[in-house]
Amino acid sequence: MADVAGPASAGLVAARPAGRRTVVGHAAAVWAVRLAAVLAVAVAWEVIGRRDALFVAPFTTTVRHLVDLWRDGQMAPAMWHSNQALLIGFPAAAAAGLPLGFALGRLRLADRAFGYFLDMMLVVPMIAAVPVIIVALGLTLTARVVVVVLFALPFVALYARAAVRVVERPLVEMAEAFGASRRQRWQTVIVPSAFAPVFTGLRVGLAHAISGMIVIELTLIPAGLGGLIVNFRSAFAAGDLYGVTLMILVEGFVLVGAARMLERSIARRLGKTDV
What we know:
By secondary structure, the protein is mostly helical. It is built from 11 helices and no strands. 28% of the residues are buried.
């Protein structure tokens, strides 16, 4: 028995470093592709800007102006003013959208009664509702939060609805056969099975929440990052204009990346390795 166990355990020990090297190599390849894509975009941006510097600021000029905006104190207040609506609106959209999507996905009557309105929220451009919200709530933080919620909630809810619908019926029936309560079925079968689509919906909703945050400032409330864009556009300050745009892109990448890291952390706790 000792002779059999010895080689087997030695093989397991030898396999672990090889597996780790594979994971590290895969991560390095992923980051290499990402950096290459960013570099390609930056180079193309620089070339286009050099050819048409009047309307398109080169990438290096954009970065320099962005740094100057932070140094002279214009960017920090604008970032805080804009992100107040995002910090309040997106969690509210997630808190309302997930239960709504779960209910529509598992309750046929509720889906038939309210699913149509949720689908309509995707068809009707949310920007059309912005003037109505401003008239009702005024030029306030509440109005900006409502716009962010309206931009994000339909996507969060629809992805959640689709996620719980595709849960395999035999898994639910097996849980019922073992005497699992409704709460236990949700905790052990439905939610873990719907994990990946739900987080995809949250990331898509976050992207649209950022869009809503900027759209309302560009259209009716010229403040924050949107206000800076309006001011620099009116002054034909291409470098500053593209600097603010680059800051919005960086924020979006950071927030979506953080959401992806959170998804992977929760997936490891749930024992999922394919996320």
